[in-house]
Amino acid sequence: MGKKIVSALVAGCLATGLVFNQPVFAEIVKTSVIPKPPTEIDGDLSKAKFPLDKAIEKAKEVFAIGSDYEGFKSGFNSYDGRAEWHLNWNRETEPRGNISVRIDAITGEIIGMDRWQDMPPGQRYSGLPKYSYEEAGKLAREWAQKIMPNYFSQTRLVPNQEQQFFGYGDRGPAEYYYNFARVVNGVTFPEHNIYVRVNGDTGELMGINLNWDNKLNFPSAAGKISAAQAEKVFGENVELVYFRPPGPKATPVKLVYRVKMGAGLLIDALTGKVIDDHEYYYYERGGMGGDMAMEKPVKQDLTPAEQAEVDKLKNLLSAEKALEQVKKVIHIPSDLKQSESRLSYDYQYPEQKQWNFYWSSEKESSYQSISASVDAVTGELVSFNKWQKGYEESAGKQPRFTKEQAQKAAEDFIKKQQSRRFAEIKPDHSWGDNYSAKGIPGIYRFSYVRLVNNIPFGNNGFDVEVNAYTGEVTGYRMAWWNLNFPKPAALLDKEKAVSAFLADGGLALDYIRIYREKNDSRVSLVYRLKDRPSYMIDAQTGKYLNWNGEPIPPRKTDTFTDIAGHPAENDIKQLARANIVKSVDGKFYPDRNITKLEALEMLVASRGWYMEPPYRMLQDGKEQAEQRKRLINAALSLGIIAADETKDLDKELTRLEMARLMINTLDYDGAARIAGIYTLKTKDANLIPQDMKGYAALSLGLGLQSDNKGFYAPHEKVTRGFAAMSVVRMLKVQK
To answer: Which pLDDT score is estimated for 18?
Structure first.
């Protein structure tokens, strides 16, 4: 792929906003989406105390909407005691554009604006935007203060927001995003915010939207427990467990410390108790986290060829024998028709082959279905689900079995199937579901976790569902694998594990709204763990692990402690904000000579292909080698280096070598190689080879580098700080 094409593709990705940050739990920023022009009235116009003509005048005045927007439509919407005017202007002539504005039809307040427009003919953007994130942030504050003063005074900017990076080359307009979260009683309520978009090239306001509800009640923070008390409760919810990612039998089991409920661990700041709502649990055994009767465990079907091969194995039960085992345990009504007989394997543990069967009735009025799976070697029941249409509502019955009675039924069922294994489990969690009109659960669900060396192994255990109307077990799943478990030796103390989770900020105090049954959505004051790369650490090394059990690279930062007062300080900060340079130890090392690989990191990132740096980021040799390979391939694709230049990447760069790489990054290498058109007037021009004079001349002419008292010094080594200065200058070159 040619360099120009690659550059255009990268610019296109940036222009269309494909580079975004992932939101964290309960801090979801509502992105601004331009609504379709309203075409009809949707609501009660009598609620509109602020008339349409006044709304139009206000929007045009605040957002300077001129007569060039010739198309206009309006709409009205009332809901939940609110009323809004929706105003929409279109410009069909070049450059085309659209502005949509929402105005509170009762108070006359502006509550939203989104703007879209084509770039004017001949307009081009490349390199770094005119405004930095901080500079545009001042404009965002001014706009929010002007348009929504009553709300803005009750917000604070959410810190450390990652921004897009803008590579050199043609691109669309750069946009910055600012999330001003609501603050009540000095505590953040992330669900409510003012969300602002600013064009980083022009400083123009592109969008502002209010997400707010003045009718919510917030509990006082006066009686809250201290952060130290909350941390003690948090520590009680860190546990040592065995963990194994999905994979073949050889996939190792690890001992890890994990946070119970993960990101969903919420500590009530007024009572000091964990908020025990089942929706905050995550379920490891699959197929039991929701309605068991409607969900089947995720399995990978064998192909006909694979199944034929497996059938040859003498230790597998035939489908007929497996079906006999099912019918010994589960009653299958005679009016149900079998429609499935399938051999599959558990995707988390492929060694376990399973026969799967499915029955359903043909009567729509009394429809019911049953699914069941058995181990294809042992004939043990692996899972079953039973569902019957409308049995809960029959004869107007109410649930009559208590949680205790339902739990006994669940445990009796497990004992009947697996008496030996019942002694190797403990209750994990339980909850009610499908609540009746009187608020009584129609279904109880119970989860039991396997114990190995008296340590939980969350991947294995039992999940059982009991019908609270009939007391019948209607769902069951067992996961129990034949694995080797490491002995619990050389482990971190639990206190050290808790400290590792609480490092870098500890617990945050927030208001959040928890949604419960029957639209109950009270606001709660909670302590919760601030965003973490994971909620699981290796119990021996203390390193964060991902869900494949692999170490997670250290968190990056764009704040450096060793650049204050350095000539390159501002340039380094600008590259950091643009996601072109990062650090994990808080240092940039500006006076250290730059290596070729480090220069490629900056230059590849400056083209919009940001990658994790392979040095100081990844300590594992294999991961480092893979990242290094990806970086080299990116540099080759962008034409920064040629195929014969992938060696000696750890050597320190000279000024002339740095100049060549920058000119290649700019796609000016073709011009640099034209012989006989460049004249170098430096006192040491004779030290520069003839085929490199074009690179040196262009670097000086474009301002990427400067001479020193008439000397170019082609063989002088380049420090990381001065390399950063040169990259910033390169990003300011206009094509």
So the answer is: 26
